[in-house]
Amino acid sequence: MTQDNSFYGPLSDPAGNAGHTDHPPRVGFFTDTSVCIGCKACEVACKEWNAIPEDGIDLLGMSFDNTGMLGASSWRHVAFVEQQRPLGRQDAGLADLPVGPSSTQETAEVVADALEVAKRGGGDLGTAPVDLGFPSFDLPGAGTGAEARTEFRWLMSSDVCKHCTHAGCLDVCPTGALFRTEFGTVVVQPDICNGCGYCVSGCPYGVIDRRPDDGRAWKCTMCYDRLRDGMEPACAKACPTDSIQYGPLDELRERADRRLAQLHEAGVTEAQLYGRDPDDGVGGDGAFFLLLDDPEVYGFPPDPVVPTRDLMSMWKHAGVAASALLAASAAVFLGGARR
Amino acid sequence: MSREGAGRHGRGGRDDDGSRERSMVPKATFRSYYGRPVLKPPVWEWKVPAYLFTGGLSAGSALLAAGADLTRRPELARAGRIGGFGALLVSTYLLVADLGRPERFHHMLRVAKPSSPMSMGTWILVAYGPGSALAAAAELLPAGVRASLPGRLLRMAARPAGLSAALLAPGLASYTAVLLSQTAVPAWHDARRELPFVFTGSAAASGAGLGMLLAPVAEAGPARRLGVVGAAAELVASRLVDRRPGLVTEAYTTGRPHRLRQASEYLTLGGALTALTLARRSRAAAAAGGLALLAGSVLQRFGTFEAGVVSTKDPAYVVKPQRERLAARAEGGG
Ligand code: SF4
Ligand code: SF4
């Protein structure tokens, strides 16, 4: 079962399993999305430090998210989710709605309704449909009590490569370009990768991608160069709220557990950890998250499994099919020797 | 990212949830991030499914050629050897050209990695190639060289070379199924038990099709029989793919992948029926049947490939089954 264990299931020491001796402890990211303010400093710091090329400057109409997703040239991606949440014990009946398009629609409707009563029906440039209450010297909402709060909430989360314990991308790479570092992270060597593209389909999170003009696969390295110099990754360094926390994975997991308990105590029952569990389908993530809604709302797969889990069974089926082919090919000659 | 898919799987939500009433039955909707795909669609284009076909064709031809050689069917052996090697050359081109950095194709040879079916496949090809090449070279010798010493040596080497290719051919025909299944692509990973049989069946049918097309009727008996057996395996296995429970099967049974695979089914069935009947008497019918088997195999590969691509583009194929899995686990008390 040791063989199986290096493909699937909990694995205490991925770097050691990959042949590193005397290696530093496994490091990772704990991204606590409950304190993310959506400033995108991580995205910028990552691009700057790693000299990643521009990959399209677009307005996507997805709230403040104009990056869209992780890709070959976006190794950090801040997701923005706009949600209507029931207040207190009220139930607006919106809980079943998918998050994205419907809330955008809600927003649009609010604006449309308000425009009707705005000056000249909003026909003047700069006419605000609703009084947003600033500029002002008070904190937003300070003039009123909790009863004036709206049902609206914003979820923000900085996504990144998960540096899986069992990494689908690494398992399938036929050139050895992807490798497990001494820190337990997963890194592509650009001088080895020949752009076969297998890793792109091997990743259960949709992280790694091929850069079209360059032909090679790229993803987050967890700033391998900085780690080797004893520095923290650029994104964690830049994050002003410590939403992105870097450190030895064991410590991060403990810290995350404490934070989760704290939030649950404070009544934020929807808080959940994602990718923390070493028993999950990828053996736990090196980069894991505290989320305030289900993973798929942020674009994560709810229950990812490394495809390698089924490798042995797949080869067995292929073996049976191959043997059948060989037998059939022999039999067709034995069958009717005359013709 | 078809709209059609969006509506069908309830991505949009507004259509099927237009009212804000709370319904009594939980909706079969799912949540996603703006309907964005969770997975990256494969970066592979037409060259990969084309290779799935040519690789299988080469394997099927090598098997037929070896049998024909051992049972003294020179025309069938010749067709299989030359056809098999030709298909191998095309395969090699397709595999190299599909790389993002074709000039680095030899980086595949730096490692042999059991966890990567592509690495295993590379080594299968490396082992298979020389046998296939030698056997074909012996067939292609100009008459003037045949009697010379090198010519005689080459012709003596042809049989063991052809046999070595035939022994490796089943590996070549089946590893591509593992190559596709060993991915996070829902439609390929979920069909992991059936795909090897679809692919080996398709390889046998295509190799047999080439034999029926190129060899005279008198020698092509084994090709016809292999065509029937291969087609049957392919048809049954691909029906099993279509019957798998769960949402992911829809990637195969709807849209373009479905149309491709349905056309493949008709052609393969037609080819097999021809092989059983008319192809035993008429060379023209045999050629038509052979072409049908070849075309059926091509369409099968493209259909299967595209089903996988479709299944990565709609987040429903990722989120829904995984949600159901989690719910089942929670119910099971785990
Ligand atoms: S499988 Fe995906 S998420 Fe995991 S290490 Fe590879 S690229 Fe990152
Ligand atoms: S594209 Fe590069 S990194 Fe990805 S699997 Fe192929 S060789 Fe490895």
UniProtKB/TrEMBL annotation, chain A:
Taxonomic superkingdom: Bacteria
Cofactor note: Binds 4 [4Fe-4S] clusters per subunit.
Residues in 4Fe-4S ferredoxin-type domain copies: 27-57, 152-183, 184-213
InterPro entries cross-referenced by the UniProt entry: 4Fe4S_Fe-S-bd (IPR017896), 4Fe4S_Fe_S_CS (IPR017900), FDH_Electron_Transfer_Unit (IPR051555), Formate_DH_Fe-S_su (IPR014603)
Residues making up the signal peptide according to the UniProt record: none
Nucleus found in the keyword field: no
Entry protein name: Formate dehydrogenase iron-sulfur subunit
Automatic annotation (TrEMBL), chain B:
Stretch list, region Disordered: 1-22
GO cellular component, as recorded: plasma membrane
Superkingdom as given in the UniProt entry: Bacteria
Natural source organism: Actinacidiphila glaucinigra
InterPro entries: Electron_transfer_protein, NrfD-like
Membrane topology term: Multi-pass membrane protein
Record-given protein name: Polysulphide reductase, NrfD
Taxonomic lineage from the root: Bacteria, Bacillati, Actinomycetota, Actinomycetes, Kitasatosporales
Compartment(s) of residence: Cell membrane
